[in-house]
Design brief:
Blueprint lengths: L1 H34 L11 H24 L5 H8 L2 H13 L5 H19 L6 H24 L9 H23 L3 H11 L3 H13 L5 H14 L5 H24 L1
Main location: membrane
Keywords: Membrane, Transmembrane, Transmembrane helix
Protein name: Sugar phosphate transporter domain-containing protein
């Protein structure tokens, strides 16, 4: 009887975990759209549009999975520094797929972003080649999703604002991520159960994490995450690595300003 009760408790805990993550995300979107009327509610108008959104969700999930894999081999600060190069890959994919050219000043600001990561890679005490490659792939996938989003949902009948798109992408992402989680993290149930027993506050952490997923801070969030992660996790960072991080952060700030001026 105890074994059965423990099993149901575990299943319930895991269900609550995923429900909290997705529930808070969807609730935030629904409140903002349906109640606060920040943006108008938009519906999926065709099967083709549904498949386009599903494709975007799949690419997003690939970036999440690859990003999590890289964290097994790289410190969070270095992971986030690499992630800050997303604008570089976005510019490349935009040019290849749509022949869209940015202003020369915008391209120029990408030089310190990439150079900073190269310098940080050479001075990173915990550098791991496989983790670096996977993290680059995750960053490229995020950029690809951004470009495809503009291409796939560009027609007047299929345009969705960011809040509505997130509202529909979130449940689709669950369908893709849940099997990946069960396959890649076989002991996820046991770990979750152990964490909950040791510290009940883990539930609040999950809810807070879900709420943060709703807010969009742009490219600057990666730069901020680099500094915060070093302060929290206190992973060893060399002087060369710090110089690389600083250059990348500086490049991201310049890129954001350049994009504002060219709009």
């Amino acid at each position: 009887m105890k074994s059965s009760s423990s099993r149901f408790f575990t299943i319930g805990l895991v269900a609550a975990w995923y429900s909290s993550n997705i529930g808070v995300l969807l609730l935030n979107n629904y409140v903002a759209i349906a109640w606060m009327k920040i943006v108008p509610m938009q519906t999926i108008r065709s099967r083709v549009q549904f498949f386009k959104i599903s494709a975007l969700s799949l690419i997003f999930c690939v970036s999440v999975v690859f990003g999590n894999i890289s964290l097994r081999y790289l410190p969070v600060s270095f992971n986030q520094a690499i992630g800050a190069t997303t604008p570089f890959f976005t510019a490349i994919f935009a040019y290849i797929m749509t022949f869209k050219r940015e202003a020369w000043l915008t391209y120029l600001t990408l030089v310190p972003v990439v150079t900073g990561v190269v310098i940080a890679s050479g001075g990173e005490p915990s550098f791991h080649l496989f983790g670096f490659i996977v993290c680059i792939a995750a960053t490229a996938a995020r950029a690809l999703k951004s470009v495809l989003q503009g291409i796939l949902l560009s027609s007047e009948g299929e345009k969705l604002n960011s809040m509505n798109l997130l509202l529909y992408m979130a449940p689709m992402a669950v369908v893709f991520l849940l099997p990946a989680t069960l396959i890649m993290e076989e002991n996820v149930v046991g770990i979750t159960l152990a964490l909950a027993r040791d510290d009940v506050k883990i539930i609040w952490y999950l809810l807070f994490n879900s709420a943060l997923a709703y807010f969009v801070l742009g490219n600057a969030k990666g730069a901020v995450a680099v500094v915060v992660s070093i302060l929290i996790f206190r992973n060893p960072v060399s002087v060369t690595g710090m110089m690389g991080y600083a250059l990348t952060v500086f490049g991201v700030i310049l890129y954001s300003e350049a994009k504002k001026r060219t709009k």
